[in-house]
Task: structure prediction
Amino acid sequence: MIHGPSLAIGAGIASIVIVIAFLGFENISNQPELVIEPAPMIQQAGPPKVTLNTFLANGSPILGNANAPVTLIEFGDYQCHFCNVFFHSTEDDILKNYVETGKVKMVFKDYNIIGPDSVNASHGAHCANDQGLFWEYHDILYSNWTGENNGWASSENLGIFAQEIGLDMDVWSECMLNGIHSQTILASNEDAKSLELTGTPAFFVIGPDGKTTRLFGAQPFEAFEKVFENELEK
Result:
């Protein structure tokens, strides 16, 4: 079943799927802006505080100029229909007009809400990152999307994708079998929950002043453009 945006009914699977999976191998929110607080030095009681690490830690390497004034964070699931829609209909325009021009940098974070293959795909990307090819693997995953929970992101296919982008298969396979990045993926899911996300894709635009704007769902390029331009004027 297609979710729109994909509902987080499976978010709780991440903590158990990571152990199990490898044994066999739309609108701009009207909510007030978030204020990013300094990371606390000690664990505090009550709800988790939103810090800069909530957005930047446990994610992909930065795509674009690390000194770009605006940051775009995407929380996504590689099996998510509307994440795939965003990838094919909007992301290229963002890259061409803002990332490649040094105005915006981008980070992708995992929010695995659909099924076991979602977690496996996340592992594939993080293991590719160990060889400096995270974004290449990210792109080949979305380029081969054919639906939700239908087997396109099986362990066998993930290995084929790794070969196609030229990864060292011995190194990548060992990383996958050992679940090396399990804690990173779990932590990213917890970051999404602390932001009270209920679906994917979900985006946060962080401006030069540290304030954020939320966008939910596969928004058109114009929606991102408006937010980017507003932030770049500051």
Observations:
- The CA atoms of residues 163 and 169 lie 7 Å apart.
